[in-house]
Structure formats: C-alpha cells, structure tokens
Amino acid sequence: MALKLMYLTSSPEVAAIAEKNGVDRIFLDLELRGKELRQANMDTVISHNSFQDVRPLREALQKAELLVRINSVYEGTQEEVDRVIRDGADIVMLPYFKTVNEVETFIHAVDGRAKTCLLCETPEAAEHIEEILSVSGIDEVHIGINDLHLGYHRHFMFELVADGTVEKLCTAFRRHGLLYGFGGVARVGEGALPAEYVLGEHYRLGSQMVILSRAFCNADKITDLEEMDARFKSGIADIRRCEAELATADAAFLAENHRLVQEKVAEIVKEMQTAKC
Questions:
Q1: Residue 68 pLDDT > 60, yes or no?
Q2: Are 91 and 114 in contact (CB under 8 A)?
Q3: What is the pLDDT of residue 152?
Q4: d(CA 74, CA 148)
Q5: Can you tell me the distance from the alpha carbon of 80 to that of 46, in angstroms, rounded to the nearest whole number?
Q6: Where are the alpha helices (H) located in the chain, listed in sequence order?
Q7: In degrees, to the nearest 5, what angle opens at C-alpha 216 toward C-alphas 19 and 187?
Q8: CB of 188 within 8 A of CB of 195?
Q9: % of the chain surpassing 70 pLDDT
Q10: What is the pLDDT of residue 51?
Q11: In degrees, to the nearest 5, what angle opens at C-alpha 87 toward C-alphas 83 and 88?
Q12: Entry pTM
C-alpha cells in the first residue's frame, strides 16, 4: 500500500497543484507556542499561518484530506479544535505533548468530530508511549523526528531512525492498530540522505505516511506555478516508482538498506561534528 504523502502549505493555489499531482493530504501548521525557543538556531521553518487559512484550503481541495496542526494543550485548546473542525479540518494534530492527561484533553476536545493525530516529538511521550496509546480515540500517530532528536540531544534527526528509537515506537503503534508514519522525505537521488534510503526505512518499519519536505519542493523559493507543478509531478512519480520496487523487496534487501542508512547517518553526524570544531 502506497504511503500517504503530506505537504505543508497555507496556499490554496499550491495545495491544488499538490493534490493534482498525487499528494494525499494538505498539512496546515498553526503551531506557534514554544516553537521558536525549541528550534532556535536550527535550519527549520516556523510557520506564521492563521486560523483564517483553514477554510480557503478546504475549499481548494477536491479529494485530498486537510490535516491541521494546532498548538500544544493550553487553556485555548477547545476553542482551537472547535474552529478548525468547523472550518473543514479532516484531521486535527496535537503536537509536543508529554503526558496522558494532555492527550485525554485533546481527544475530549475533538469528541469524534474529526480524525485525531498525535505528533510524538518529546522524549517524555516516547518513553511513556504505551500509557499514552491506551487512551481511547487516537486514530493515528506521526513521529516528529526534528523536535524529538533535539529532545534527545542528538546531532541529526535521522539518528533516531538509525539507532532504533523510531523502530521501537513504530512497533508500539502497530501493536495498537494505528496508522503511523515518521519524519519527512526529500527527492529521490538528492541530498546527503536521498529519499530512496528513507523510503526503504518506511517500508521496513511498516510506515503508512510521510511528509514531503522543503527540499522536495520549496514553495517559498519557487514562485512560478508551472515550474512548481512540474516539480511535484516529477518528484512524486519518482517516489511512487521507488515505492513500487520496495513493495516487492524482501527482508534481506530492507535490512541491507537499514545498514546503509546507519552508515550514511554516521558519516553525516561525523561531518557535522567536524564542522563545529
């Protein structure tokens, strides 16, 4: 079964292009609380989207689902949940939770009106995942390896894939019968850790969804819509071709891919450490 591909945008025009080319979910990020402090000095994008972006995105989509990430639990959580569901969110995502109580508060706020997705991105959540998954009403979980690797004081987010942290979490999700995924993926054949290696890990671990990263298509830098359309078309076609090969791969192939990922991650970490010296 092909991975559900997710793409972050607040633009209805970009969302329509992504959907046309096979993106399964449009991901609107409304999280702001605590994010600047956590990701200070990191090469990450902190979105400054608005609740007013939900409805235009919903209206732009024909078949893709709309996933909206709200803020972590606080006194305004119920109001946030009510608004995004009212304006058309199919899935509501809770980020940066640490406790069972926070998850229960979120599930209660949604109250069955939309699918619920937990973004597991704190060591506290990872280390108490069995207790958290016992909460009724969770539909799916995504592992946010960016914040999670910061929480564990690692150098590179894919260290958590190489060292078994992600595998342990995926095993728990699978045991509870949940839809799950982790991290993001760039383009096939590009970057220090190309998409084909990352996709191999998704298939080895039984993942069912992944985010298309900024490196896949950076809508902030590509302003020509025809160019963007072409980039989505070619990039998604490459991913689906890679998936078709992985769908028939045996355990030995996937194990060797995991070994190569570990090797490449170790090389990247070494380069990062050397650059700091």
A1: yes
A2: yes
A3: 97
A4: 20
A5: 19
A6: 12-20, 35-38, 54-60, 77-86, 100-110, 123-127, 129-133, 145-151, 159-162, 165-175, 195-204, 225-246, 251-276
A7: 110
A8: yes
A9: 95
A10: 97
A11: 120
A12: 0.94
Q: Residue 174: what are its φ and ψ, rounded to 5°?
A: -65, -40
pLDDT bucket at 157, cuts 50 / 70 / 90 = very high
Specify the DSSP element, H or E, that contains 66. Answer: strand 65-69
| Fold of domain 4-276 | TIM Barrel (3.20.20)
Q: Is 135 helix (H, G, I), strand (E, B) or coil?
A: coil
Q: What is the DSSP letter of 3?
A: P
> Which tens digits make up the pLDDT trace of 73-115?
999 999 999 999 999 999 999 999 999 999 999 999 999 999 9
Please count the other Cβ atoms lying within 10 Å of the Cβ belonging to residue 4: 19
**pLDDT (0 to 100) of residue 34:** 72
Q: Where are the domains of the chain?
A: 4-276
Q: How far apart are CA 158 and CA 146, in angstroms?
A: 9
The residue count of the chain comes to: 277
The one-letter amino acid at 100: V
